[in-house]
Structures
1.
Amino acid sequence: MPRKNAFYAQSGGVTAVINASACGVIETARAHRADIGKVYAGRNGIIGALREDLIDTSKESAAAIHGLLSTPSGAFGSCRYKLKSLEENRAEYERLIEVFKAHNIGYFFYNGGGDSADTCLKISQLSETLGYPLQAIHVPKTIDNDLPLTDNCPGFGSVAKYVAISTKEAALDVASMCETSTKVFILEVMGRHAGWIAGAAGLAAEEEGDAPHIILFPEIAFNHKKFMARVQRTVKRFGYCVIVASEGAQYKDGTFLSESGVKDAFGHSQLGGLAPLLAGMIKDELGYKYHWAVADYLQRSARHIASQTDVDQAYALGKAAVEYALAGENAVMPCIERGKGKRYRWSIGKAPLDKVANVEKMMPRNYITRDGFGITEPARAYFAPLIMGEAYPDYRGGLPVYVKLKNHSVERKLKRRFKV
Amino acid sequence: MPRKNAFYAQSGGVTAVINASACGVIETARAHRADIGKVYAGRNGIIGALREDLIDTSKESAAAIHGLLSTPSGAFGSCRYKLKSLEENRAEYERLIEVFKAHNIGYFFYNGGGDSADTCLKISQLSETLGYPLQAIHVPKTIDNDLPLTDNCPGFGSVAKYVAISTKEAALDVASMCETSTKVFILEVMGRHAGWIAGAAGLAAEEEGDAPHIILFPEIAFNHKKFMARVQRTVKRFGYCVIVASEGAQYKDGTFLSESGVKDAFGHSQLGGLAPLLAGMIKDELGYKYHWAVADYLQRSARHIASQTDVDQAYALGKAAVEYALAGENAVMPCIERGKGKRYRWSIGKAPLDKVANVEKMMPRNYITRDGFGITEPARAYFAPLIMGEAYPDYRGGLPVYVKLKNHSVERKLKRRFKV
């Protein structure tokens, strides 16, 4: 029997280091040519498999594949496409198996968050039922850091670093201007359900009085009165106030602030954007001059200031996924385990996918200060090692060198087309 | 007669490298102790002089002063405070002379943009009239890059680098997601009247089809229909569209797209919020899923990815200012002169302040493509060397090490207080 090929796909929002995991998968597979044939990647993620639109990564040079280690975003394309449940759309799963069979694929590496862990598990189960067993391994990835069983998720450490540095830098700017100008600065960051990213901004504060002075977490119900009082108190005490707001900040009833239908300071209806909304509230009630920034994709694509720890872990998890596959594992996810003791150590562990799928890990309450506006020492101890090290890319002409793969298509083998 | 002291102040919006100029001024003055006494800095800029609130920089260690080279924002505080004209408020100018006289200050170094060049010139003129001659030297600084007679302005190169890198990174993100998700990404950047910053984002495009696909300049009247057509055409052709919009984008009649009605101390409108506005327009008319980011202060404080060229020039201009003062110059501004020839070379030149004050340098029309949405080869040739080199700061614990000065006050000598 010929060696089985492998299939790799990127899923959901991309990160600064998801390609480092791809690099780990492909380089490790190449190092085991006797056991693994080619690595095919899904063009635009799982829909590439559904459409039988596969990329032949064997056409890429070793240098190009290695370049993935320092290239942000998804080199093969990713997608937001959640497979329906088996009951609702069994045809999709059957199609995947059909495509995998046609291309002699025996290993399925799915690089994503909670939804893709669930998909990965289902494919593993169904492939068995359909008599074409696949080894399905999930490679964790999400800036939201909300997967269970892993100490942290690749992608998060780099966003955390970006957000902490940006907060520190913008705060210095505001501090030096506040006597006559901007008194309040708001940085809106990602994190719809969990406040991990906003929390990491707390690392910017190294001494009493340092920014950020207020962090808004999705986990803590927004209290308008308490918030305004804190802004005012901070400006009176330190001359300025820096706020880091998670886009998922919400009222007690679960309504997002940014979806509350409130109009901004200028009477324009809100087009999305918590930062301008908060700025408008503050201007109206306290009269302070403000500035605000929305980092949006900049935060998750900022490979130029990625965390070395994050890059190392993303690569190691891709590598471990292939090693697990070679060891005969199925329906598992390599994860990060943190060693005990004061000095940070990490190693790769193994989590069963049925324990990972569809579980969201929130910030523990003891990571957030009692008043709900800051992070505690345990949180700092958790976050600090994740932003360690600066994994600078190479530069040419003042700009980072990011690889562009050739992404050659694999010849189709199936007559049937599948509409996605 | 005892050696004269020097006074140094930071003015207007701070940058990633204004402290590098401060470093150049202070280190050079320290190297000429026989000629220059102490360097006093204005706390929060020129209002520190009006209030007789001076900082004694001689209390800072050599290491702390050297740390300014890699510390963003204004280490002594800056301000948005425009002195009125001599006719309107002669008292302010007289107060400055009074304070300078009381502290035996013979050298006035003012580090700012166009408004402060004007102030610097007036102080030089008035000091003569009042019989207390001062040597007033302006040290250029503005991310807006709009000062005349200098090839470029310190602070701009680093913003340019940040904006080009961020555009490149965010574009990779969008490109990898556009099949099923975001099709349009808008990055709003600074630049009220001149499109230099937005233009620099054009460096991110290295090949045909690369982002940014559309740049909106203040210099080019916004044409709604043409803009929408271009967005649609780009999405159809490349699958996605990345737009970099200058906050100063305006209609033919000069109204800013994002006019907010709030004005700052200089009477400039406070802008912000153009990105969500454009996103809303696009969603309404073309239905594309969008994301947007507003970099705001992040772009001008991003010392973590400052341009080495910019840092070198900022320092050199501070140094040159002191050397000009020692050579007996008055009412001048050291500036950057670009050498001829293909290889980039720069040197320090000298511009008379009366030719600098209140002149704004816009993007030349031949730097902008005929269609008004991009930059030309001459523009690329102009911008490219300004972002060269990565002047990384030191890191500790995953965060950049930025100095915090002690900022000891100089004892007051005047009885009279001056309200600012």
2.
Amino acid sequence: MTGNDKAKQYGVTPQSQDFNEWYNEVVIKADLADYSPVKGAMVVKPYGSALWERIVRWLDDRFKETGHESLLFPTLIPMDFIAREADHVEGFAPELFTVSKIGTEVLDEPYVMRPTSETIIGHMWSGWLNSYRDLPFLHYQWGAVFRAELRTKLFLRTSEFYWHEGHTAHADEQEARGEVMQMLSIYHEFCRDVLALPVVRGEKTASERFAGAVATYSIEGMMRDGKALQSGTSHYLGQNFSRAFNVKFQSREQKEEFAHTTSWAISSRIIGALIMTHGDDKGLMMPPNIAPIQVVIIPVSRKDNVEQMVAEAETLAGELRAQGVRVRVDKREGLSNGFKYNDWELKGIPVRLELGPRDLENGVVVVKNRNADDKETLPRGEAVAGMVARLADIQAWLLQRATDFMLENTVTADTYDEFKAAIEAGKWVRAFHSGDPESEKQIKEETKATIRNEPLDGSEFFAEREEGVCFHTGKPSGYGKRVIFGRQY
Amino acid sequence: MTGNDKAKQYGVTPQSQDFNEWYNEVVIKADLADYSPVKGAMVVKPYGSALWERIVRWLDDRFKETGHESLLFPTLIPMDFIAREADHVEGFAPELFTVSKIGTEVLDEPYVMRPTSETIIGHMWSGWLNSYRDLPFLHYQWGAVFRAELRTKLFLRTSEFYWHEGHTAHADEQEARGEVMQMLSIYHEFCRDVLALPVVRGEKTASERFAGAVATYSIEGMMRDGKALQSGTSHYLGQNFSRAFNVKFQSREQKEEFAHTTSWAISSRIIGALIMTHGDDKGLMMPPNIAPIQVVIIPVSRKDNVEQMVAEAETLAGELRAQGVRVRVDKREGLSNGFKYNDWELKGIPVRLELGPRDLENGVVVVKNRNADDKETLPRGEAVAGMVARLADIQAWLLQRATDFMLENTVTADTYDEFKAAIEAGKWVRAFHSGDPESEKQIKEETKATIRNEPLDGSEFFAEREEGVCFHTGKPSGYGKRVIFGRQY
């Protein structure tokens, strides 16, 4: 699409009018991603890729700081590996991509494209592990995984998606469980401090566990339509996979034992969470801490001074870069200023600066925060010197807005009628539940709501310990606190 | 393998005795990579992955500096896309991985796992391109690609390997050819300045071109057995792919034109080149500029002062880190100093420091360069302050050694007998060749040697313009200079 074509098609369906349509349009029009000719797969475009690279970089640095090492395992996995852990194959079989021919050779034993890598990593570990001295294995890899999806939604539901998968092996359960909680904490910190996403840390119920896990923990965020999005998971796998793949070692006491393993992941879905938590009717709102472009400068020029004003804008950009700010000067030709303003608002750039000849003369610059209604005219030096603080303010504003929204749209319910009314109204519901899987299933069928998680003791949201009676079965609560129900992506 | 098992199996077959065996052992024993249960695919282990990450980081920074943008295209490609460019399908068909089932659904139109992405990128471009104002597209992606290999050799020949593939589209041939040469220069600079690999830049003959290219340029390095390894390629694709995928635009003159496209790549094979260019009988030699660990410190202790000496080693490490040096302290227990020395020499760490209680008392440290025979005992402050310069010296030494080796093992030949004798002796041969493809083919069948490339005018190696008579056909030289023949990996 050229600039002019885009101008014609300017604008997105307002978020408040049709959230799904807003999402689909904003992803395309902001140039984050596009549909591909491969069913269910997307193309991540430069703006989306720059965003993902920043996500990868932050997480990767934290993984390394906490002693983890990256590896690269094959994309293909022998089909029979998947079958070796009973729950695992049941969970993944319907989604597998099968490779049965290489060159002209038809394979006796087909491969699958990895839906996740516990199995092949377990296999490799069994060859690498001998003694407790070799442990822990603190491994992770970045890459693509493949799970068939019936309906594509860019970033949120694609057959191929991008992620890291962490895989660790430990000599005992306590250490493994410590790892699981450490990684959940890192995910929580990342969401809160970098993406400005308030998330609820908690444990999933048995029916929502990862296929093959003993315990699954998640972070859950609320989108602006009230639905939940599971934004990261961390699993304690017990000895399930180590038994299936013979990952054993000689203990300090000279006994043969199976390792306790974990796995954990955040995927490119998190970009969907970012979009759906922060946007507004005009488009995206990028949190400054992750924004590939934090400030955009629009040189406001007449036909006869384009080059001069671009040069002046570049000078201003240099002053901001010296403060560590990520800046882009919009030098595109043949587009109106109004189009450019709208375009960068749609892309969610936190701050826009406008610099015209008169501003230059007066030593001022026009400043527009993405989250503000009005422009400000500031002395240029002040605008530059205050930019880092301004960006921090916008970051805090976004986290506060999202937190307020989540709190305002979470209600308690003590009867099924209250529960259904709240779910229907797009709320999260805090309620007592017995823990009975059959009841969970029935509630899901009737209301499309599931237990998002049981908030962890001590976490900042919804974690109060409380006793009560299950709204659905009348049995005593199974968790010692209310759990979070919601519809989900 | 535990440390003790490794100690028992210490040592590698000397490079001078059996180069292939040396290579296979060194990759495994240095923990760079391992064989996997997937035919032809490897597992890249932490040391290899750290090395690859550093390669990726350097190149990625350069791509961005030169205005390129990263994207992520699907791993799968519709089979019929591959068939659309005639040379392309002929080149890749025998190596393709076919996906014909997703979940339980058998596909009418199978997908292939990408062997390279010109086709699907061409398809996407045709949707994105309208006007000359949209050009150039300066795109690249990092990822895995899949080409069946009959015999696995870790890093060098694996069915799945890692790379970036650059893809650019331009309004005219001149700009596209400029891009091709720019990327070849970046590859050359990377090999020379970072990996300490002397490489010959040049154009491939028609029979060695990329499937679908108008012109292919390569950088070729000489391994320590005299064989060549093509270490990077840059292709001018003309309008072949843009015609096949309808990548057209309205020119400044309002005419419809097809874009001129390029592609370029360096893959994880480059790690094979690094190993085979720099190693010696004891193992790897990592160039300091790419080494994940530049200096290893061995605390030399008795049983009663292990903790103290580790703490002292960490203090020393901190002093080096303050100089920007990448340091590892070897804290492994239950291993002899001798084992540790050998282990880190095998891994090719540029500098080893030994710190014992008496050294501490005397304010000295023992320094051993990987490329030197003898240890030095230096005042500690001097060793620390001189480390950056020492690493630079080792870097320069490696490039010089590899350059000398390449020059010493490249000979000229003017008759077929001279040619065959030199090839048989493991040399590169500079010779006049007619350019006749049939003659090239015959030479290859008889000697396994191919034309590596025609060195570019102005490049530092073997580029002198010269006229002469083809040693094989007696016809006049087709290149205005001698071309480089050699056996290849």
